[in-house]
Amino acid sequence: MNSDPQSVNQIKTSALPSPAATREPSKAGDPYQLRPEDVAEPPQTLPGILRRIGPGMILAASIIGSGELIATTRLGAQEGFTALWVIILSCLIKPVIQAVLGRYTIASGETGLGSLNQVPGPRFKVNWILWGWAAMVLFTLLQVGAMFGGVAQVMNLLVPQISVTIWVLLFLGLTLALLLGGAYARIEKLAMVKVGLFTLLTLLAAIVLIRMPQYFSWKEFVSGFQFRMPQEGLHTAIAVFGITGVGASELFMYPYWCVEKGYARFAGRRDGTPEWRRRATGWIRVMHVDIIVSMIIYTVATLAFYMLGAGILNGMGKVPSANDMIPVLSNIYTQTLGPWSLWLFYLGAIVTLYGTIFASTAANSRAYADVCRLMGFFAPDDYQRRVAFRNRFVLFLTIVPAIMFLSIGSPVKMVVVGGLAQAMMLPVIAVGALYLRHKRLPKDIAPSTWATAFLWFAAAVIICLMATYLAGELGKLFA
């Protein structure tokens, strides 16, 4: 892959071969290089398109994790239905930025960080956005550590003879075994299983909640759309905006999964011909369906988690904290589905939290390895070195979060801090998407006028919301 940000037409891309998307990269060749034999026509029917989605499912597996189970539910417990608008806005507004980044990957063949590395500004080997991303990921490791802790706490409740510390170490070992040398297909399959299981169970619990007048009323539900900024839970609200829906971390990651799924390579190298434009437009259409399907799934799941927190936990006067997080959260199932569902909650919590550990670590290890490529530590076409760097980062990105949890021991606080870091990065990635749309995307593959207008609207909302939060914090300092 060409690391020169100005050579858009010469940038290479990646994906698994079409249609054998389940072959290991080591057998199929470097998935980060264009090969003419991998060019494929996009599907034209909805069933055909649905068979080619997948990157969004991996994102949904990352999304439906600590943000929904812990941060979203906690916000509902703190604020009731007041902050419902934060959840809806977060889920619906950010996919337009995701779509622009994915579109640029298909059009240029560049990865997510490689694309944003073209944005003007201060540079030291790579530009300021990539350094900001690297710093953000270090903070989001707190979220991964919180998920290690949450899974370990559940397992300790099930098997109290084994301590939380030992369970953290066991899941650490399992993660390393699964990810070292793992390919896209394995990650996609595990993500789909994880997304389906807990989403359906939580949606069922939320439906039951609607029929419980002691915890739910439509009047309170509608009041959540009055756009009032929460007072007691402001930090949590901003954190939830940062990590629910497509968070900053997932926005950076989505182009990588598009690369490994094959959308750009199936379109082929941009040569300016009508045939290329037709293929590229077709695979962009597939990507849009992928984004929409995943958006529906995580929006429904996030809304269900928030309703359960606002209805059940707020009604009971319980807010998850460091020592009682899992017992308190289990009420969202036991108070709706009945005491028998406690075991379902435990199983769902394990699958949800661990699935997010797995998906986020897989994504971040790829991105960190790509930064090393952009900094010149290995040649763009040296796939073996890329894999070697990726595996080193898998070690770092699993061991450090586990140590963080064992040192801090408060999953709720860790999730909130990580969410705030993502929220602060959202305006940066929004500006980066605007730059790619107007300065780098080829005109023959650019989004429509209404899509561009919505991109500007999304960027403005994100910047205004973050500015409001920072202004409030500065006001406290000088009060």
Please state roughly what percent of the residues sit in beta strands, choosing from under 5%, 5-15%, 15-25%, 25-35%, 35-45% or over 45%.
under 5%
The number of helical runs is 21
Helical percent range? over 70%
CATH class annotation: Mainly Alpha
- Largest sheet data: 2 strands, antiparallel
Number of domains: 1
CATH superfamily: Amino acid/polyamine transporter I
> From the coordinates shown, what is the CATH architecture?
Up-down Bundle
At CATH level 3, the topology is Amino acid/polyamine transporter I
**Low-pLDDT ranges:** 1-28
Q: Distance N terminus to C terminus? A: 52 Å
Structural features, described:
The chain has a single domain (41-478), classed as Amino acid/polyamine transporter I, CATH 1.20.1740.10. The protein has helices at 25-28, 46-51, 55-63, 66-79, 84-93, 95-108, 112-116, 128-158, 164-179, 184-210, 218-223, 234-243, 248-261, 263-267, 274-316, 325-329, 331-334, 342-374, 383-408, 411-440, 449-478, and strands at residues 123-124, 126-127. The protein contains 21 helices and two strands. It has a two-stranded antiparallel ribbon with strand order 1-2. With 479 residues, it is mostly helical.
